[in-house]
Structure formats: structure tokens, C-alpha cells
Design goal:
With 302 residues, this protein is α+β, with helices and mostly antiparallel strands. The protein has one domain (6-12, 54-301). Helices cover 16% and strands 41% of the residues. A hairpin with a 6-residue loop joins strand 2 (109-117) and strand 3 (124-126). The protein starts with 5 loop residues before the first helix and ends with a strand.
Length: 302
């Protein structure tokens, strides 16, 4: 059986980092439009560091969230489904490879989430330290998180999640780096759209003594938050409306790493030798979603 030419692939993989996506992938359309047509191609990372994601004022507070898995698909036009399903490093295939949905296919998971104002930063932000600890513990069904390190005033783009020893065979520490953010509000129904493209570095226990297991995954989350119920309360002579329930959708696009894109798009060798990597095909594969996941959530204000 022919063996993939790893030496050539590594050389070509370095070239992929210099490629821009095709014009079809580099869309300037609104986030809501791209989400509707499932155009969740990988954003091109640049040197500009994104600021913290600011949320609408109505989300401020603590909510009870119930999350349900709504399906998945393999939309790639350059990589075969049969090859992708055999690849364990695809985001979401292993527990904790997507820290916001640690066990992708699980439904009816409930946990608390919080959005708050932080001193020194304008607007309402996600309380990421609180939320990630709550989410991971709920999905793993135990007190799995030892601590979450996140300081939005110092660096809004890095989060460290420390897993308690023995809580998971897949991770003992997760480093999450945000590379791009985007948001939009639809005036007709106040739906708020928020996207975040991240690289997750998962560090776990290696097979060899003293050697850590390190897995890199790249993915993009797109959330929508739509108010569905409002409660009116009296404060003296004035009446105040507060959103009490909201419907949330989460669409997740998982991408392959550059060297995997080369492997998945390599063409058969006419001479019977090792498959020949294709820089053009791999360039497309590295930016298109390898897998798409959908979740639906309900938020109820506490």
C-alpha cells in the first residue's frame, strides 16, 4: 500500500500558512447571511488582536441554560466523509476537543451561565471563567474543573482551563486562543449574532512517561441569542421590561490542520508510489469546514 509522502507534505504545509482563502471563502457578507447559507469558512488570522466580545444589555445577569444536540454534517467538497470520520483529531470527535461543548452529541445538559460588566471594560461581557467551569462540569457530570484563568482586562483572547487530575483521559489542561470575533444585531427581533474563531491546545497524558500529549484544534462558534419572553416589573412610578427567556443556537465549524488537509486531498500517484499532495486542494480544504455541529439552547433568567 502506498505511503503518504510526509517529508513533502511538511514542506507544503508550511506554504499553506501563507495562503489566503479563495474569493468564494473570503466573503464580506453579513454574519447572519453567512450563517444562513452555512458559509462558515475559517477566518484569515491577522496580526490585529480582536477585542472582547460585547453583548447586548438585556443579556446581563445569570441564566439557566439547557443545551440540546441538533445534528451534524460533513459539508466539505474536497475531503471525503469516509476519510474524515476516521480522523480522531477532528474538533468534536473526542471529549473536550471543543471546550464549549465538551461532549458534542449529548442532549438535555443544564448549567448556569453569566454575562456581566467588568471594571475597566465598557459593556456587557461573557463571564468566561464562570461559564466554562459550569459547562465542563455539567457535560462531564462531575467536579472536573480545578480552575479557569481568564482576565479580560489584560488579555481577552486567552483562557486556560485546568482539569482536575483523573477527571478526563483526554485533557489535563486546555489553552484557548481567540483569533477573530464578529457580531451583529438584527433589529427586527433583537437577535444578537456573535462569532468566535479559536485555536484550542489540549494538553493531556502521553503514552510515554514524561511526555505530554498535545492536540491542536481550530474551530469557529457562531451563537445567536433571540429574546422570547419579557417580564414587566414596577420600580416606583416607572415600568421596566426585562428579557426573561431567550432561544440560543450554536453552530460550530471544525477545521482540519494544514498537514491533515494535505493528506486528505492527496491524489493517487500514477506510478504507484506515494500519493501526491496538492497545494491547491489542500489550500481549500484548510479553510472550509470539515464538520458542522448544531446545538439549540434555552436560557431562563435566574
Amino acid at each position: 500500500m502506498a505511503v503518504f509522502d510526509r517529508r513533502r507534505a511538511l514542506a507544503l504545509a508550511a506554504g499553506l500558512a501563507l495562503l489566503d482563502p479563495s474569493p468564494a471563502l473570503a466573503s464580506s457578507a453579513l454574519l447572519s447571511e453567512r450563517l444562513e447559507r452555512k458559509d462558515l469558512s475559517k477566518p484569515v488570522f491577522n496580526k490585529a488582536r480582536p477585542g472582547p466580545q460585547r453583548y447586548p444589555d438585556w443579556l446581563e445577569g445569570t441564566w439557566r441554560c439547557t443545551a440540546t444536540f441538533a445534528g451534524f454534517e460533513f459539508p466539505s467538497k474536497t475531503m471525503s466523509k469516509s476519510a474524515l470520520i476516521k480522523e480522531p483529531t477532528i474538533p468534536g470527535f473526542q471529549k473536550l476537543s471543543l471546550v464549549y461543548v465538551p461532549d458534542v452529541g449529548t442532549s438535555d445538559v443544564s448549567y448556569d451561565v453569566r454575562f456581566a460588566k467588568f471594571e475597566g471594560i465598557e459593556g456587557v461581557l461573557e463571564d468566561r471563567a464562570f461559564n466554562l467551569k459550569s459547562i465542563v462540569n455539567a457535560y462531564l457530570g462531575k467536579d472536573a474543573v480545578e480552575s479557569v484563568e481568564y482576565e479580560p482586562t489584560r488579555d481577552a483572547n486567552r483562557t486556560t482551563v485546568n482539569i482536575r487530575p483523573g477527571a478526563s483521559p483526554n485533557a489535563e489542561r486546555i489553552e484557548l486562543f481567540c483569533n477573530a470575533r464578529e457580531s451583529e444585531t438584527r433589529a427586527s427581533d433583537r437577535t444578537f449574532f456573535a462569532s468566535e474563531a479559536s485555536r484550542q491546545v489540549t494538553l493531556g497524558y502521553g503514552k510515554d512517561f514524561g511526555t505530554a500529549r498535545v492536540v491542536n484544534t481550530d474551530y469557529q462558534h457562531v451563537w445567536t441569542f433571540t429574546p422570547t419572553a419579557v417580564e414587566r416589573s414596577s420600580n416606583g412610578d416607572s415600568l421596566t421590561d426585562a428579557v426573561s427567556e431567550a432561544r440560543v443556537t450554536l453552530s460550530t465549524a471544525g477545521y482540519v490542520q494544514a498537514n491533515d488537509a494535505l493528506r486528505f486531498t492527496a491524489a493517487p500517484n500514477a506510478t504507484g508510489g506515494a500519493p501526491m499532495p496538492s497545494l491547491g486542494g489542500a489550500g481549500l480544504a484548510a479553510f472550509e469546514p470539515a464538520v458542522l455541529y448544531s446545538h439549540v439552547m434555552t436560557l431562563r433568567r435566574l
